[in-house]
Amino acid sequence: MEHESYGIQVNGNSVHHVNRSLYQAKMKIREPKWNIKASEMSRKTFNPIRAIVDSMNVEPNPSKNMIALSIGDPTIFGNLPTDDNVLQAMKEAIDSKKCNGYAPAIGYQKSREAVSNFYSCPEAPLAAKDVILTSGCSQAIELAIAVLCNPGQNILVPRPGFSLYKTLAVSMGIDVKLYNLLPEKSWEIDLKHLESLIDDKTCCIIVNNPSNPCGSVFSKSHIQKIIAVASRHCTPILADEIYAEMVFSGCKYTSVASLSTDVPILSCGGLAKRWLVPGWRMGWILIHDRKNVFGNEIREGLVKLSQRILGPCTIVQGALEAIINKTPQEFYDNTISFLKSNSDICYTALSTVAGLRPIKPSGAMYLMVGINMEHFPEFESDVDFTEKLIAEQSVFCLPATCFEYPNFFRIVVTVSEDMMLEACTRIKEFCEQHYHLHTDSIIQDIECDK
Q1: Residues with Cβ within 8 Å of residue 336, at least 6 apart in sequence
Q2: Is beta strand 356-359 parallel, antiparallel or unpaired with respect to 366-371?
Q3: 371 close to 409: Cβ distance less than 8 angstroms
Q4: Taking Cα atoms as reference points, which of 90, 22, 65, 54 lies closest to residue 279?
Q5: Is the pLDDT of residue 23 over 60?
Q6: pLDDT, tens digit, for every residue of 305-362?
């Protein structure tokens, strides 16, 4: 094959003959092309709840109104409004016209003082310097993990547990080890299992109390045992305490930090649940470091990480002192009374349903229900069970596979009392229609009759 060539005049003098095909090949190699790919961090970010819920291709029963017991937003049904004093504080912050500019990345000094004064106690004293304001409790957890852990290290996370811990950690290249909670012990931590997971790469233990998704509340003695494990291995605790004080009558809430004498604690909390304003995105980290184990390095690290987005909404910050100090105890009590009443209704109703095993909650806004899958052979999993429950009864409960705990489902108890009663009736009807006595049980009954 004959190759074309052409001449190129250089500096107005001699002519160089260039092989056209070779020249075009080289030019083709050098030609830039669009090649934009998502970052490694974004590819590693995975929300199991979204993945499972989005994959549930099911339509509710058109003859029945949908009852969603799946969403952890207490405001969604309109029956749990925040207190009028909370709204008034926001109005005054806006009208003051003093909260429209940038605040320090870690929050206004006055707002941090309000939080530290509210949570400080003799056993775990706090000052404004110990408070980092964040964009919701979720960001507080993100910053706490980011300041304590490096890629290749690991964190210990409860199972069942809030899925965000794993979502955040894995996206940062941090490994996740799941320690078991024990349903037969009201979801206490399996302390032996917890301790067996700790190694030289463990950077923190996440403790969620009161619990999402379990609705459990740890006793003082159990928290002391958790701290003892952390102390033996010199491992800090990240305490997710967004449901602090949201415990039912007859039960007492104890913060992790109030019992620790040597283990440093980063306690994450916020306005979302107790004040019923999750959309306002106001959270905080409380730094408890009685023995100065964190030193300046962790504190400075939290400040630097906070500077990436310049902190939470300044209007909410401006209202924070009044929100915390002027919300009446009656508001908190009424919220807890409502949640306990609904929890009792749900637990009592479902305890009588063959094939289900609800675990009685002690706080927060959730209740976990076990499914004896051998009695529901037509369903492959808790996901399949809850999917069919939507299709037939228009009741949406979150399958506990979302929380790394199959064969359970979670119920949110923030709906109205009427809706809770109706949902329980429908769940009972669904189970009665699909329940099958296990073959082994039948054989045992026959043998007993002989």
Answers
A1: 246, 247, 248, 249
A2: antiparallel
A3: yes
A4: 90
A5: no
A6: 999 988 899 999 999 999 999 999 999 999 999 999 999 999 999 999 999 999 999 9
Say which residues have a Cβ less than 8 Å from residue 320's Cβ, sequence separation at least 6. 89, 111, 114, 115, 133, 271, 282
Query: Tokens representing 57?
Result: 């291709």
Residue pair 310/80 in contact by the 8 Å Cβ criterion:
no
What would the mean pLDDT of 50-67 be, rounded to a whole number? Answer: 89
Q: Report the C-alpha gap between 180 and 341 in whole angstroms.
A: 28
Cα gap 279→297, rounded to integer Å? 32
Q: Which of 379, 372, 341 minimizes the C-alpha distance to 357?
A: 372
Strands of 120-213 (E only): list them. 131-134, 154-159, 175-182, 188-189, 202-208
Neighbour tally for 156: CB within 10 Å: 26
| Cα distance between residue 287 and residue 264, in whole Å | 8
Q: What share of the chain is helix, strand, coil (3-state, %, to 5)?
A: 45, 15, 40
Whole-angstrom Cα distance, residue 412 to residue 215?
10
Helix (H) or strand (E) segment spanning residue 399: strand 398-399
User: Distance between CA atoms of 277 and 236, rounded to whole angstroms?
Assistant: 30
Q: Which long-range contacts (CB under 8 A, 24 or more apart) does 2-7 make?
A: none
Sign of CA dihedral 367, 373, 377, 379: positive
Q: How many angstroms separate the Cα of 39 from the Cα of each of 46, 50, 139, 235, 256?
A: 13, 20, 20, 31, 37
DSSP string, 357-379: EEE---BTTEEEEEE-GGG-TT-
Q: How far apart are CA 156 and CA 380, in angstroms?
A: 29
Tokens of 435: 């329940």
Record the tokens describing residue 401, joined without a space.
């596979």
What is the phi/psi pair of residue 253, to 5°?
-90, 135
CA distances from 448 to 33, 374, 415, 441, 442 (A): 77, 21, 45, 11, 10
